[in-house]
Specification:
With 212 residues, this protein is an alpha/beta fold. The chain has one domain (18-209): Rossmann fold. It has helices at 9-15, 31-35, 50-58, 71-84, 99-102, 132-141, 155-167, 191-198; strands at 20-21, 39-44, 62-67, 89-92, 108-114, 142-152, 171-176, 204-209. The protein has an 8-stranded mixed beta sheet with strand order 1-4-3-2-5-6-8-7, sandwiched between helices. Helix 1 packs across helix 4. The model has no long low-confidence stretch (mean pLDDT 94).
Amino acid sequence: MRMRKKTWAAPFLEAHPELAINDPKNYKGKWKEYLNCQSLHVEIGCGKGDYCTQMSVKEEHSGWIGIERERNVAAVAVKKAVEMESKRLCFIVQDAGQLSEWFEEKEIDVIHLNFSDPWPKSGYKKRRLSHRGFIEQYKQCLAEQGRVIMKTDNSTLFEFSLLEFADCGWKLAEVSVDFRRKEHPEDALTEYEKRFLELGQPIYRAIWQKNG
C-alpha cells in the first residue's frame, strides 16, 4: 500500500541535504570519506529507515546509506536520522537502478536487501532487486569478497534469489529458512520484520559473497 502524500516531505528533505543527498554522483569514490567510516553498507529499499538507522548506532565504525525511491517514505527515514543524530548515515532518494553511477568500483563492502518487493508477476522479474541485472551492478560496486545480505518473508522470492545468485557465480556463504528462531541482537529488526514475526511468519535470510 502506497503511503499518502506528506506535504512536509519535500521541504523537509530539502532542508537536510547532508542526509538526503541530492546528487549522489558527486560523492562517487568519496562515500567513506564523507561518512568518516571504515566500511560502507548500503541498504537498497530502506523504507522508513528502521534498519539502517538502528544499525548505524550498533556499528560505530560503519557508514550506512539507505536508498529509497519513494520521497514520502524516505522523508520519514530522514526524520528518524535527524532525531537520532546519526553521524555516519545518509540517504539517496532515487531509484537504485543507477547504483553503478553513484558508487566507484569496489567501493561498497555490504549491500542489504531487506524485505524487497517480490514483484510476483512473471513479467516483472527484472524489477526484483535480486535479478541478475542488479546483481551485475552489485558485483561492480562491491569490494573484493564483498557481500549481499538478504532477508525476506517471501519464499518464492527467496528461491528465485538463491538460483539467480548461483547462476551468476556467487558463493552462498550463509542461508537460513527461519533466521529468527534464535535471537540475533547484532541484527536490527525492520518494521516489516516485527510484523511478520508477530504473525508467526519465518524469516528467510541468505548471505552471498562476491567471487573476484
